[in-house]
Amino acid sequence: MKTKTFLLLAGLVALTATANADQSTADSNVVVLPTYVVQAPRQLPAEQQINTSLNELRQQAKTPVFISTELPLFTGYFAQQANAAKVSRHVRVAKS
Fold first, then answer.
1. How distant, in Å, are the alpha carbons of 26, 31, 37, 68, 70 from that of 34?
2. Which is higher by pLDDT, 69 or 22?
3. Which of 8, 32, 43, 90 could form a disulfide bond with 47, CB atoms 3.0-4.6 angstroms apart?
4. pLDDT in tens, 20-63
5. Looking at residues 63-84, what average pLDDT do you find?
6. In this structure, are residues 83 and 91 in contact, taking their beta carbons and an 8 Å threshold?
């Protein structure tokens, strides 16, 4: 019961605060600000150069490239370790 009363009071306070704020604003205080027109080029030459180079990089990134993840130096080592693991799998260790 207390929470319902509290929520009702909070709602009424918010409603009255909004109504008072609405009444206090007057339309007679409208200030007309000056407007400025800026005439400048859309893009500077440096920006155009950057955009063209970015577009070239994007075009290069679209083409698929095959990259090998295997290193030939390690393939022999890993194969040797795999063979050693196969051999050691058959060895039984006695528990003491």
1. 21, 10, 10, 63, 67
2. 69
3. 43
4. 655 665 566 778 889 988 887 788 889 999 999 999 999 988 88
5. 73
6. no
What whole-number distance in Å separates Cα of residue 46 and Cα of residue 53? 11
Report which residue type is found at 7: L
Whole-number Cα distances in Å, 9 to 1, 4, 6, 20, 60: 13, 9, 5, 16, 65
Pull the structure tokens for residue 89: 């799998």
CA 94, CA 85: separation in Å to the nearest integer?
18
For residue 26, the SS3 value is: coil
Instruction: Give the separation between CA 56 and CA 53, rounded to whole angstroms.
Output: 5
CA distance 82 to 38: 71
